[in-house]
Amino acid sequence: MHRAQNLSMASLILFLFLSFTLFFTALAQQRYSNISLGSSLTPTTNSSWLSPSGLYAFGFYQQGSGYGIGVFIAGIPQKTVVWTANRDDPLVHGNATLLFAGDSGLVLEAQGQTNQVISTSESPYSASLFDSGNFVVYNSDRHIIWQSFDYPTDTLLSTQRLKANSQLFSANSQTDHSRGIFRLAMQADGNLVQYAVSTATVTTQDAYWATGTDGQGNNVTLNLDDDGHLYLLNFTGFNIIMNLTDGRYPTQKTIYIVRIDFDGIFRLYSYNLTQNGNWSVLWSSTNNKCAPKGLCGFNSYCVLNDQEPQCLCLPQFTHVVQNNWTAGCERNFFPESCKDDNGDIRIQELTNTVWEDNPYSVLFLSIKEDCERACLEDCDCVAAFFKDRQCKKQRLPLRYGKRDMGDSNSALIKVGKSISTTTDRVEPGKKKSDQLGRGILIASVSIVALGLVMLAISGILLYKSRAQPYKRINANENIVLFVS
Ligand SMILES: *[C@@H]1O[C@H](CO)[C@@H](O)[C@H](O)[C@H]1NC(C)=O
Ligand SMILES: *[C@@H]1O[C@H](CO)[C@@H](O)[C@H](O)[C@H]1NC(C)=O
Ligand SMILES: *[C@@H]1O[C@H](CO)[C@@H](O)[C@H](O)[C@H]1NC(C)=O
Ligand SMILES: *[C@@H]1O[C@H](CO)[C@@H](O)[C@H](O)[C@H]1NC(C)=O
Ligand SMILES: *[C@@H]1O[C@H](CO)[C@@H](O)[C@H](O)[C@H]1NC(C)=O
Ligand SMILES: *[C@@H]1O[C@H](CO)[C@@H](O)[C@H](O)[C@H]1NC(C)=O
Ligand SMILES: *[C@@H]1O[C@H](CO)[C@@H](O)[C@H](O)[C@H]1NC(C)=O
Ligand SMILES: *[C@@H]1O[C@H](CO)[C@@H](O)[C@H](O)[C@H]1NC(C)=O
Ligand SMILES: *[C@@H]1O[C@H](CO)[C@@H](O)[C@H](O)[C@H]1NC(C)=O
């Protein structure tokens, strides 16, 4: 019994060893170009090292008037950048040199200064760029001491995986590959989640997409195969936990990549190499371009116009920086008084809008007009959200706003009289309804007392239900923030 087991174990090891060596001799024959110590690149002449087939390149790529350093798909007309070194460093001038040096890895020499591009713990000996797009650095024993597949930026290539506790960060724009404002995190709890980056501490409210696979496996990884199969794998069990796509797309002459795009949406693309056409989208995390939180900055909200997103400011707010939506909006009026003493302050309503849920006070009121009044009477209140008889008073800034025709929430925004625009809501008979309003107010006060008790209870319930889907976020906050 025991012997038989040992025997099968031995043959298994032999088999593994054989397939291992076969795999590597196959690679040795054709699969990598050999970059030796002392090799160098400059942006204008000899600007990159190609993979054996010429599909991928490592080296300088042009960005605006300068150069970035990274891996890009060189064999197609749209030179697509898939990895960037030191993505937040300033661009490189045309007179710099990239040098593969003996003691420290890859360094950039420019204007008499030396910057580390790839640092290795051991002395490197050679490097290769594979046809998979992986740039690999070896020591003298030909052990891998560094590979670009371990440090993804915004893209995963076929056969590359996103490990537990790591994440992808979107780029700033289609052409600027420095770090943008969205991220995709493969959490230690097994959940794959997209977040707005902007905040220092992350909560469930910053998430805008998730697979909901927390608790379903250990060390779960996100994987992309060469047939476009995108899935979550249970690292210990080798079981598929979830298919994001079923794959089975053509493998010949077609490349697949997944990327968290600069607009915050996570997409699987394919490219037909025989056609020399365009990248086509095979799958995306959402079709709603307003879904990514943080696309519109503080005090603005996203509306779709022919499927294209647009950020609008709250009434009587203007964009902090023209044409920069993430910078958000600020007030352009300064009310003399915060209360509705002489009718200078009114409410303007934004129907069917949803926001971050962060009220400083919640009242239970049956009609919207009571909610408006409650906000007008309260100096701290700049806006109130009214839905399902709940009046949620808000302070600035308001975040993550977007129009959602399927949501009945109304944002009631306090505005001053000073600036009147044609779009302002008119409130006929406002003065006359004051007495009635006061009666309602008294009624409301007693309802409020009751409401506060209910709030305490529902608040706890609400928190619990919200905390469920991505509950281990807090535990992971600090783990992955420094991935470059
Ligand atoms: C790669 O280059 C190094 C140094 O020139 C050399 O020793 C090594 O044999 C080369 N490897 C292959 C597979 O060509
Ligand atoms: C480019 O690199 C090759 C091989 O390293 C070298 O022979 C050639 O002279 C270089 N060309 C220029 C313009 O530096
Ligand atoms: C390199 O280029 C930059 C900008 O074009 C310039 O400021 C710098 O003097 C140049 N350095 C050398 C050594 O030519
Ligand atoms: C994932 O692996 C863990 C540990 O091996 C196992 O308990 C769990 O059932 C696996 N989950 C799936 C979906 O395979
Ligand atoms: C997950 O991976 C880490 C690091 O590789 C390892 O220490 C840990 O034991 C793994 N956990 C499980 C349950 O396999
Ligand atoms: C996931 O996709 C793979 C490959 O297409 C397929 O074999 C497998 O049955 C799928 N699993 C599930 C759970 O759909
Ligand atoms: C790629 O384009 C060629 C030529 O148009 C076509 O024959 C082939 O079917 C296409 N492949 C895929 C995977 O669409
Ligand atoms: C590729 O896309 C561009 C812009 O969307 C379009 O103008 C062009 O016609 C497309 N080319 C092909 C071959 O589909
Ligand atoms: C837009 O504003 C944000 C926040 O102020 C800033 O981080 C970003 O660099 C700006 N983007 C552009 C293109 O100016």
TrEMBL record:
Signal peptide span: 1-28
Regions that span the bilayer: 440-463
The species this protein was found in: Hevea brasiliensis (Para rubber tree)
The UniProt record lists the keyword Transcription: no
Protein name: Bulb-type lectin domain-containing protein
Domain Bulb-type lectin: 34-150, 153-281
Keywords for this protein: Disulfide bond, Glycoprotein, Membrane, Signal, Transmembrane, Transmembrane helix
Gene3D superfamilies tied to this protein: Bulb-type lectin domain (2.90.10.10)
Pfam families: B_lectin, S_locus_glycop
The UniProt record lists the keyword Signal: yes
PROSITE patterns named in the record: BULB_LECTIN (PS50927)
InterPro entries (UniProt xref): Bulb-type_lectin_dom (IPR001480), Bulb-type_lectin_dom_sf (IPR036426), G-type_lectin_kinases/EP1-like (IPR051343), S_locus_glycoprot_dom (IPR000858)
Biological processes annotated in GO: recognition of pollen
